[in-house]
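SEQUENCE-TO-STRUCTURE ENTRY
===========================
Question of interest: how does this chain fold, as expressed in backbone structure tokens?
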Amino acid sequence: MKKKIKCILFDLDGTLINSGPDLLEALNHTLIKNNLQKINSSYLGNLVGGGAAAMLERGYKYFNKTIEPNELPLLVKQFLDFYYKNCSIKTKPYKGVLETLENLSLNNYTLAVCTNKSQRLADKVLKELKLEKFFKLILGSSEKLKLKPDSEMLDFSLKYLNFIPEESIMVGDSSNDILPSKRLKINSIFVKYGYGDCLNLKPTFKIESISEIQECIKKLNT
């Protein structure tokens, strides 16, 4: 059977890796440094997503406080300095990720990461978790491309890897992943176990476990 799907793009946080515990550690480090208290891990799902600034703003809102615009750059620096040093202490791949990446690689699918996480953090955490070897491209955030949900990062990834949308799938845990996929007419898979939601968008598939990706690909290839 000739494969229609040849390229799979993955979001990172909430899709391939459970990075929430280390992100919470970085947030709590920053809160304590600025005379606030720790936030319990039970509130984690309400904090993650959107980057350091968004997490900090949600953290401050938890204590009914707001961050002054002139304070934010220092807080972000404190957060990122701590997180960079500790980004893979508690972070782990989700169940089934390693096996799924191995199987997809063995079946000659081209795999890439397309994440709003900064380039240096994406590179570091994937290297430390020994996942980088599976990917032909690891694309993190930079000043060169607009972040998801803009379609620039996905579009760049496909052009860099030399695939067309019809040959590709985007896998993610957020509307930030599904929306640009729809704009570019890329098939999309929403993972239900992550941090985000797909709002009222309709991905091609919704899955409970990353191992279900291979069944989704079979359906698209028939």
